[in-house]
Amino acid sequence: MEFPVIHTNFWDGVIAVPVIVILTQCFKFFSIPRQYFPTIASVLGFLISIFISHQHDLWAGIFMGAFYGAAAVGTYASLKTTWLAFKQRKKHNSS
């Protein structure tokens, strides 16, 4: 069995990951427990990858969908941690 050849480009990650972060944030308007948001991001990553980015190759869509979802979760976690550290530092320096 050969591994699938996955053709992806820079724009897949540059467009797909921010779209997943934004769509995941839209789900916060509903009363969904916070622990489900990484799963929501993963599902959105799979959907975008399978049905838009790699619609002619299911295995490539599944493979890249996992990366899209994980990248979105990591990006959000990094931004949130940075923002909280910035607010804490600003609060600490002003007192």
Describe the 3D structure:
It is elongated, with a radius of gyration of 16 Å. It has one domain (10-94). The chain is built from three helices and no strands. The mean pLDDT is 90. It has helices at residues 10-26, 37-53, 58-94. With 95 residues, it is mainly α. Helix 1 crosses helix 2, helix 1 (10-26) crosses helix 3 (58-94) and helix 2 crosses helix 3.
Relevant terms:
95 residues, 75% helix, mainly alpha, 3 helices
> Strand percentage, roughly?
under 5%
The helix/strand series, from N terminus to C terminus, equals HHH
Secondary-structure content class: mainly alpha
Mean pLDDT level: 90
Basic shape: elongated
Q: What composes the largest sheet?
A: none
Number of helices: 3
Describe the SSE topology.
Elements: H1 10-26, H2 37-53, H3 58-94
Helix pairs in contact: 1-2, 1-3, 2-3
Concise structural overview:
This protein has helices spanning 10-26, 37-53, 58-94. It is mainly α and 95 residues long. It has one domain.
